[in-house]
Protein 1
Amino acid sequence: MNEELAKLREQIDALDERVLVLLNERARLAQAVGHLKLSNGEEGGPIYRPEREAQVVRRLQAANAGPLPGEAIERLFKEVMSACRALEQPLTVAYLGPAGTFSEEAAVKQFGQSTHGLPVASFDEVFKTVEADLAEFGVVPVENTTEGAIGRTLDLLLATPLTVCGEVAVRVRQNLLRKVGGLAGIRVVYSHAQSLGQCAGWLNAYLPQAERVAVASNAEAARLAAESEDAAAIAGERAAEVYGLAIAAPGIEDVAGNTTRFLVLGKDAAPPSGKDKTSLAVYVRNKPGALLELIEPFARLGVGLCKLESRPAKSGNWEYVFFIDLEGHREEPLVAEAIQEAARHALSVKVLGSYPTAL
Ligand SMILES: O=C(O)C(=O)C[C@]1(C(=O)O)C=C[C@@H](O)C=C1
């Protein structure tokens, strides 16, 4: 057995050396791409190319014969591209901090570890930080499969000059964290309002007496729970590690498969990747049939809608802005035509961005 093990490891060592050589060959090519981009100034375009990264991963997933699952191919090659990209130019990405939030997880999932993360105090700060050029990109949650839309993000999208250049989905496993194990003696549960909502059923069943206190982030909740014996936090596993807490109850979200979708904000529009989405914000007149007129061109031209969400327009009571996600890139002729026609029935249309559909 020992001999067999040694032989297998020898083969792994030999392969690792080949992988190492290939990785560095790839890195040198990426460096050359980086020089080309930077030496061409404006024309060279941005360093980060979300459409190209999506194409690289999709192509390799399609070619993948296993046994590695497609999800591992995505993770590994995103890290490879992250390291290559950092050689071209280091990027800063802002997200809701502190360390240990699901926003941080989303930022790492999209940009990899070789990126400078900039945790900030609120969703508003994420927008402001990118707008002020203190970070090249920002990552904000936009909807959750249990709790629906993140209203604050939608409101901020209406006002920002930034563009949406990516989306990333993160499976959100919520845990009850505290200094010690068990549920006895918990008087207060801290979490972000979204997470309290995602676990409302569980809290009603197991901790009906505990006070629920909404705080700025799940990681902040974990920090508070680490300070007191009778407090607990709802947060992800990462926060337990960061703040040295025990997982008193794992997987307490009410809906299985609880997932949050995040948007990537930047300054450059992403060109088509072959499988894209476009997000719009549309103001319509408050009159009968307005919504029907608005979405009719999409149906007629065969452009699929994946999301329709209304939100108070704040221009007057009972007036609404519709957030529409559709399949396709704004540069595709049918998509462009459908948007143009819809705009004729709208007071205004803001294209928030076109971006590669999450892998
Ligand atoms: O193809 C490019 O434009 C590159 O810069 C190379 C590369 C890569 O490592 O494959 C790195 C960064 C970009 O976001 C996309 C791809």
Note: The pocket of prephenic acid is lined by residues 30, 33, 48-49, 52-53, 56, 81, 84-85, 88 (CB under 6 Å).
Protein 2
Amino acid sequence: MAEAGVMSQRGPRAGAGTLAGSGKSLSASGLRKTYAGVVAVDEVSMEIEAGEFVTFLGSSGSGKTTTLMMIAGFVEPDAGVIKVGDRDVTRLAPQKRGLGFVFQQYLLFPHMTVAENIAFPLQLRGLSKAEIRRQVGQVLEMAGLTGYGRRRPRELSGGQQQRVALCRALVYRPPVILMDEPLGALDKKLRDQLQTEIKNIQRELGLTVIYVTHDQEEALVLSDRIAVMRDGRIDQFDTPRELFERPRTAFVADFLGAANFLSGRLEEHTAEHTLVRLDHGGILMARSHSYAPGHRVQAAVQPGRVGLCAPADGFCTGTVETVTYVGTLVRVGVRPHGAESLVRLELPAGRAPVAGEQVGLTAEAGDVTLFAEESG
Ligand SMILES: Nc1ncnc2c1ncn2[C@@H]1O[C@H](COP(=O)(O)OP(=O)(O)OP(=O)(O)O)[C@@H](O)[C@H]1O
């Protein structure tokens, strides 16, 4: 049976109403963990609302998994407090926190059928056989797996196994579900499809989800808010839009959208914006900032926010060096005259210039964020 769109093509899900709104808030304050004197997580604090989808995003070793494992109860923090709703769970064993988990490895029991795997957490809780059958049927239907209950995990595709793992986490209605790179082992097409399905289930049931990934695109698709982590700390915890439009550090600007950074010196402030004299020539208008005139700055602007214009009309003039078609988009690299590195643009394919062309570059002041040169 083809997996594509199994859940999205369906009508309202049976029994979704009985599970709806099961999410609870979660808070962490001052979380810290060191391993043999090396700080893995430091000063991590956050308030997550009931029904929110929050992602920890960061590169390898930034402390995402350690933070999630402290919330789960598998790693003991050196300091800090974790609350689920109003309840302090910091010193509780994992199984007493009532949280659900979905990890990259499916961790299904190979000798049990799909239905038995999903029933397992309910059996631990002592539900009657009839009630277990009913609830297992309900989540199987929700995950588009009706008819698969008697199979064993090895008779399923990777995507189906990951759905079973999701069912097993959902079935006992945990107030918060923790997911650590659950789609990391799947190919891109399946990952995209399951992202949509996870998001749909989360929204429909009002679940609180904390999700770990190093893939910024996945984080942007799924999350209400993203905590961008670096060196064990949260650089910024905000909505995807705020992270894009108001990155607080150069690291966030770069991590989210591979920003262009142009160095220069702050020239002057006006009431609404700030003028920057770029090192390679030209004046760029940025949103207003408090740095003093003369201050060295890096101006960050996302590739999708740089436009083309006639050579003399932009904040600088340059030569088109690279033009790469990516579906309906074209990625263009322009080398400003006198500059060492390229400015990257993303344009609709119909507006592609040709290599060698002389162009001007434009950007709205509101899309240009300044950082003091030493930051990031
Ligand atoms: N059990 C452990 N013993 C010693 N050091 C550890 C242990 N677990 C994690 N660390 C260290 O703590 C830091 C944070 O690791 P963590 O696994 O939380 O990062 P991460 O952001 O989840 O990375 P990845 O994406 O690679 O999983 C790393 O420097 C790591 O080497």
Note: The chain is about 25% helix and 35% strand.
